[in-house]
Hints:
Blueprint: H1 3-22, E1 37-39, E2 46-48, E3 55-60, E4 68-74, H2 75-101, E5 105-111, E6 115-125, E7 128-133, H3 142-150, E8 157-160, H4 166-185, H5 193-203, E9 226-230, E10 238-245, E11 252-259
Antiparallel strand pairs: 1-2, 3-4, 5-6, 5-8, 6-7, 9-10, 10-11
Helix pairs in contact: 2-4, 4-5
Amino acid sequence: MARNDHKRxxxxxxFASNLDLLKEHPSVTVEPxxxxxxxxxxxxxxxxxxxxxxxxLEHVPPDYFGGRVRILTCQICNNTSGHLLDSHLARxxxxxNALATSSPVEATFTVNKSFKIKGALQVSKPGHVSVYxxxxxxxxxxxxxxxxxxxxxxxxxxxxxxxxxxxxxQIALLxxxxxIAVSELGYxxxxxxxxxxxxxxxxxxxxxxxxxxxxxxxxxPDEVLGINYVSYPSEEDAFLVVFDLRSxxxxxxxxxxxxxxxS
Length: 263
């Protein structure tokens, strides 16, 4: 058995046992009530051990940010989140890093409104911009641009830098905090209407389900990394999930507050 397959089976068994234990509680009902099943923490679809190939190892935070495998998610949830959420978080980090370190940032250049060439922009110092062009991105028109420059012409060049969706960034961070909490606290963490609201917001990032993402950026001491429970004042009972995001840029911290449901 390959290493990843072995890890996937171990996580399946761990969470399947946790789900079987949770179902013993009189107030918990899971349908269909089949033993030894894994519940995807995002879509809540049940998977048997025979369907384990449909489950993926989930790096939390994403591998790009130095995360480690903590839990399984189904292929659909994993792929959808990667496209809609994690890509925006990675793009934000790339742009923030470019501004902080004066490193190049990817851009697309339109020359004389007729053709495009991919490359990068770099602001090395105030008022000084370096342009890097990727010849292979348009090998047929690149010589035309060189010819214009050699002739002393000044072509009209416009650039476009791909941005990111701020809301998708916030929900990507929310997803990380949610999966950390489930991986550490188990399925019992899901037995809360407030947490159900969080899950729905992650599943439907284009909708406004939660009034606020609850993300609090900042530099937090290592002692509070992980899951913290805040019990005072009593009306503010909440779980605080604090985690690092470390990538090619400067490390930064994030914290999310999961407020407990009050009766």
